[in-house]
Amino acid sequence: MTSGHIRIAVLASGGGSNLQAILDHAAVPGAVRAGQVALVASGSTSAGALERARASDVATAVLDDPADGQAMSRLLDAHAIDMVVLAGYLRLVPPQVVRRFPGRILNVHPALLPSFGGHGMYGRRVHEAVIRSGARVSGVTVHFVDEEYDRGPVVAQWPVPVLRGDDAGSLAARVLRAEHMLYPRAVEAVAAGRIRLEGDRVLRDPLAAGDAVPVDVAFGLAADPATAAVDVDRFLDL
Ligand code: GRF
Known about the structure:
Largest sheet: 7 strands, mixed
Strand order of the largest sheet: 3-2-1-4-5-6-7
Order of helices and strands: EHEHEHEHEHEEHEE
Shape: globular
Low-confidence stretches: none
Strand content: 15-25%
Bound molecules: 5-O-phosphono-beta-D-ribofuranosylamine
Mean pLDDT: 92
Number of strands: 9
Helix content: 25-40%
Distance between the termini: 43 Å
Structural class: alpha/beta
Number of helices: 6
């Protein structure tokens, strides 16, 4: 497969650390990727994501009206975009665009959907709601985007423990580390067709051995490498 033949538009509203993780994953020396970030667009001129795009020589655009599906479609066409990746994008993707990119729009959400998602559940609010609920596990969800906030079929999830003494900031930081590792790989798996949507079902090719995750970012949820066993009491005392 030729590197970068799937042209990706990243939509971002904020700082763009997930965009950066995707750009860095693509830039690993010697890596052959199916996807290539060809455009970064934002509804806000001050989004840090636009700055990061320029620093990587990626085309940028500011959306005058993020609800204008025709304008967004024209923009995506002008850049010959094949796939759309939301990275901290706070607006709903117009239905017209959702319909034009079936199975080719992804989002990352900083909790385990279908809990703690939906309209207005973004940023700190997600982590505050998780902590308030008493949930012991949060995590990252990558999902296909449909016409509702945070609802489409799940591509990948990574559980992250809620630790004693966590506040929204400490939990957000732990979840974000997992986002940065999971999202670029999920984007690439979809770009390469290894994970795909058929109807409303997500199909996955058997995965080749991937990157090993360092034990510290397995967040205590991994099996003991020596015994391949999981100490169940650990789940009572995170
Ligand atoms: C991430 O937590 C992501 O899950 C959520 O918004 C945040 C974006 O952060 N959708 P960044 O702009 O990628 O740094």
